[in-house]
Amino acid sequence: MVAAMEIKTTPVLRSRLQEIDIENVPFGKYFTDHMLVAEYDGKTWHSVEIKPYQPIQIDPSNAALHYGQSIFEGIKAYHQENGGVAIFRPYDNWHRFNASAVRMQMPEVPEEIFVEGMRQLIALDKDWCPHHDDHALYIRPFLFASDNAIGVRPSEKFTFIIILSPTGPYYPAPMRIYVEETYTRAAPGGVGYAKTAGNYAAAMYPTARAQQQGYQQVLWTDAFEHKYVQEIGTMNVFFISGKKALTPSLEEGTILDGITRRSVMTVLKEMGLEVIERRIAVDELQEMFKKGELNEVFGTGTAATVSMIRELKYRDFIMEFDTNAWTVTPEILNRLNDIRYGKVADEHGWMFQV
Ligand code: COI
Q1: For the CA atoms of 115, 119, 122, 123, what is the dihedral angle to 10 degrees?
Q2: For ligand 1, atom 2, which residue shows the shortest CA distance?
Q3: How many other CB atoms sit within 10 Å of the CB of residue 222?
Q4: Nearest residue CA, atom 8 of ligand 1?
Q5: What distance in Å separates the CA atoms of residue 70 and residue 349, rounded to the nearest whole number?
Q6: So what's the pLDDT on residue 302?
């Protein structure tokens, strides 16, 4: 942990908070009064500043717009039972952010800007953190190339920004998922593990196709055979079979190393389940389902937290689940919420007090 850094702070003259019902908002539509901005000039970070939330000026030749050198993170801060606000595992996101930066040939962001800057920004806008169950203050740090030149080469200059958004659940109801066997999210050696904008852009067309058929998201499969499971939409995925929890392993570098994924694995073990990280074939899931051995399926992510999957469509085969009868998924969510809202002791050291 670093000492508090002096960040130039310009507060708003008048807060917009009264204009927005933060206990009843969709995901990612409203933003708090302030934002943090920092610039990288090719050698050092400078001009770290917290100021009123406002548009940024972009030159038409901005390199990020053309070639996509752009990464982000998703983190949440929660209202605590004792009245404070705490951030869930920000150091894990900081490490992952910098791993994404390295892969995309971008500079790493120092702790005193990413974590301490975030803390100071949230301290200023803490009244924007909702109290409602399943609501949180969503934190969006992002970094993009800011050279103005259209030659294809890594940018020298970069801009880092953190914005905050009071938010409710990303997927409020159990989801219908389409197993994607034509399009690919990630291949070994690619950027699947990095939280880079292009991964999300490339997912939009296949997702829109699935949505036209009534599915909310796709279950991505491997690039070579479309046989092995990777992720669901923007989430990691878990399959519960009796006392076992299966989730795809990370070693191929095609899957995001989710912070919620890690937390859920810890909680599952504490609940007495065996957690198995390995390759999982869709055919195997189908066989398990036919035998009545596939009990619960859910996605995990910062925005989504834990989202139940009520249907998986694999070719002509439909796997439907009665989510009302589930026991494991609701318990994970309860246990995680108790930790995140400060209702139980933080034995894992996951909560970072603002
Ligand atoms: C997350 O924060 O969980 C994300 O991946 C961002 C999501 C809105 C795409």
Answers
A1: -170
A2: 74
A3: 21
A4: 303
A5: 30
A6: 95
Is beta strand 175-179 parallel, antiparallel or unpaired with respect to 305-314? parallel
Q: Quote the ligand 1 centre to 144 CA distance (angstroms).
A: 17
For residue 211, how far is its CA from the centre of ligand 1 (angstroms)? 18
Give residue 170 CA to ligand 1 midpoint distance, Å.
9
Give yes or no for residue 235 CB within 6 A of ligand 1: no
Answer yes or no: pTM beyond 0.70: yes
Q: Are β-strands 244-247 and 85-88 bridged in parallel, bridged antiparallel, or unpaired?
A: unpaired
Best CA proximity match to 264, nearest among 350, 147, 188:
350
Ligand 1 neighbour 230 (Cβ under 6 A): no
HSE of 146 in the Cβ direction (CA atoms, 13 Å)?
17
Partnered with residue 319 across adjacent β-strands are 312
Q: Which H helix or E strand runs over 315?
A: none
The CATH architecture one would assign to domain 8-168 is 2-Layer Sandwich (3.30)
User: Percent of the chain scored above 90 by pLDDT?
Assistant: 94
- Residue 117 Cβ contacting ligand 1 at under 6 Å: no
pLDDT tens per residue, range 103-146? 999 999 999 999 999 999 999 999 999 998 889 999 999 999 99
**Alpha carbon 92 to chain centroid distance?**
12
- pLDDT tops 60 at residue 243: yes
Dist CA 144 CA 68 (whole Å): 8
CA 181 to chain centre: 24
- Can you tell me the distance from the alpha carbon of 266 to that of 233, in angstroms, rounded to the nearest whole number? 23
Equal fold, 8-168 vs 175-340: no
For the chain, the domains span 8-168, 175-340
CA of 254 to the centre of ligand 1 (A): 16
Residue with tokens 């740090």: 141
C-alpha 24 to ligand 1 mean position (Å): 19
Enter the CATH code of domain 175-340: 3.20.10.10
